[in-house]
Amino acid sequence: MIKWTDEDLLQLDRRYAEVGVPFHARPMRAAMDLLGSGTVIDVLGSPDFQEIESSYRRLIPEVNTIWPGMGIGLATSIDRVRKVVIAIVYGQKALSLDEGLGFSSREEWLSWCRNDSSIAAGTAFALADLFDLTYGLDELQQSNSATKYWQMALSNLEDVTNILASGFSVASVLQPVCMTAELAIKGTLVYLGDDPKTLGRRDIGHRHAVLAERLARMRPHRDDALIASIVSKLPDYVSSRYDGTQLTRLDVVRLALGVQFIAASSVRRITNRDFALELERDQWPGPREPYFG
Fold first, then answer.
1. pLDDT tens digits for 165-183?
2. Is the N or the C terminus of the chain less surrounded, counting Cβ atoms within 10 Å?
């Protein structure tokens, strides 16, 4: 066991603040510094780790609340929407689909899905998309100027989820739906070397189909055909700010699920995260169905 004090942790925190270490990463960094280890694996295996982490969280509560490595998105059962939260965790912990979706049991999950295998499969892929998006962005968060696009995409997806999960009205949700897809695609395009000024031109701008085609050319992926189908259904962003929607709640819920998929796919193609592919290769749910209407 090593010897350390609260003052040691506070001094380390000051150093981390000066060099810009994110709040959520500081307890692990402190453990590595105090234990003299250069690897996360060694730290996780130390009996001192939990005590260091617990003390750090007591002294600096922001490490619990300011958490960029967290994704908030949705799963759906017809037009019912459930808020799903994915947080970055260290180590290997087996997580069942029902736990990942926030249900207390497999039975509760299947009941919410109306005991319909197709609906349950759709929720499984929704979880996989949010998982790939969240963990993928955690890998990329220190990358480059693309980060701001992804952060704004996540913020819009969270807005979409909160609106649809808490009420029936859909009129106010179309703008963040459109922006989720646009910002996620632009983030990946910028990451791949595209010029942000070019992406802001009027002939590209808010045109989802043009952005999707550009993404498919720069980094082809198995999801491209499905993305093209989804963006063809998205309303014009500018007109959606002023016109009332004639879409039903079910229509909008499907679009929301679709842009979550687009955001995940935009990140999947530039990281090693692909939980969705694992599900597609399993006996169940198997190949992804077009759950987006």
1. 988 778 789 989 999 999 9
2. N
What value does the mean pLDDT take over residues 50-54?
84
pLDDT, average across residues 121-149: 87
**Which region among 5-14, 133-142, 275-284 has the lowest average model confidence (pLDDT)?**
133-142
**Using CA of residue 114, residue 280, residue 135, residue 250, what is the dihedral sign?**
negative
Angle at alpha carbon of residue 264, lines to 112 and 212, rounded to 5°: 125
Looking at per-residue confidence, does 269 or 146 come out higher? 269
Q: Is 70 helix (H, G, I), strand (E, B) or coil?
A: strand
Q: Which DSSP symbol is given to 80?
A: E
- Stretch 202-222: mean pLDDT, rounded? 94
Q: Determine if the pTM surpasses 0.85.
A: no
- The tokens describing 80, both together, are 């019912």
**184 residue type, one letter:** A
The contacts of residue 28 (CB under 8 Å, 6+ apart) are 40, 43, 53, 90
Strand partners, 80: 77
* Neighbour count for residue 108 (Cβ, 10 Å): 13
Bridge partners (DSSP) listed for residue 85? 72
Alpha helices in the chain (DSSP H): 6-19, 26-35, 40-44, 49-59, 62-65, 97-100, 106-112, 117-140, 147-166, 174-191, 196-199, 208-218, 224-231, 237-240, 249-268, 275-281
Sketch the domain layout of the chain as residue ranges: 6-65, 70-281
- How far is Cα 20 from Cα 14, in angstroms, rounded to an integer? 10
